[in-house]
């Protein structure tokens, strides 16, 4: 690490929280605050992408609606229906915090419009096991 000592909230080396003030070794373990301007810019970008909204929740661009299914066939049918209807989202592995009969799910942006489009595209064709909200 090079450059002048600068305080930072997230260590660009480790991505861990840091409470240093630039005059002492970092609490995150990176060995000091002599980060370059490029490293500080990377840390600022990291903080911005992980910032919280006024309610303390993560911003909506990180929040997803996860639709779980009981069968792989239903997930694949869901994908075909959603792609044809222009519903935003994609198939992904089911997060470990969710239990369902199938190891795949449909993930889409957390929005009423996306959910309404999903329901319109899949109604009567596939039956979701459950709807979940997760923050990535």
Describe how the helices and strands are arranged:
Elements: H1 37-49, E1 63-68, H2 72-85, E2 90-93, E3 104-109, H3 112-122, E4 130-135
Antiparallel strand pairs: 1-3, 1-4, 2-3
Folded structure, characterized:
- With 136 residues, the protein is of the alpha+beta class.
- It contains three helices and four strands.
- The two termini are 30 Å apart.
- The radius of gyration is 21 Å and the shape is globular.
- Helix content is 28%, strand content 16%.
- A four-stranded antiparallel β-sheet has the order 2-3-1-4, covered by helices on one side.
- Residues 1-8 and 52-56 have low confidence and may be disordered.
Summarize the structure.
The chain has 136 residues and is an alpha+beta fold.
Order of helices and strands: HEHEEHE
Number of strands: 4
- Evaluate the radius of gyration: 21 Å
Strand order of the largest sheet: 2-3-1-4
Structural class comes to: alpha+beta
How far is the first residue's CA from the last residue's CA? 30 Å
Strand content: 15-25%
Treating each run of at least 4 consecutive H or I residues as one helix, how many helices? Answer: 3
Q: How does the major sheet shape up? A: 4 strands, antiparallel
């Amino acid at each position: 690490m090079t450059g002048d000592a600068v305080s930072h909230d997230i260590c660009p080396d480790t991505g861990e929280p840091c409470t240093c003030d630039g005059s002492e070794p970092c609490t995150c373990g990176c060995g000091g605050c002599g980060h370059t301007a490029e490293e500080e810019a990377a840390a600022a970008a990291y903080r911005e992408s992980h910032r919280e909204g006024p309610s303390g929740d993560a911003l909506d661009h990180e929040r997803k609606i996860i639709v779980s299914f009981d069968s792989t066939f239903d997930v694949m049918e869901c994908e075909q229906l959603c792609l044809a209807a222009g519903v935003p989202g994609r198939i992904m592995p089911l997060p470990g915090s969710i239990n369902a009969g199938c190891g795949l799910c449909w993930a889409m942006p957390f929005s009423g419009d996306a959910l309404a489009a999903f329901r319109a595209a899949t109604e009567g064709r596939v039956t979701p096991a459950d709807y979940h909200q997760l923050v990535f």
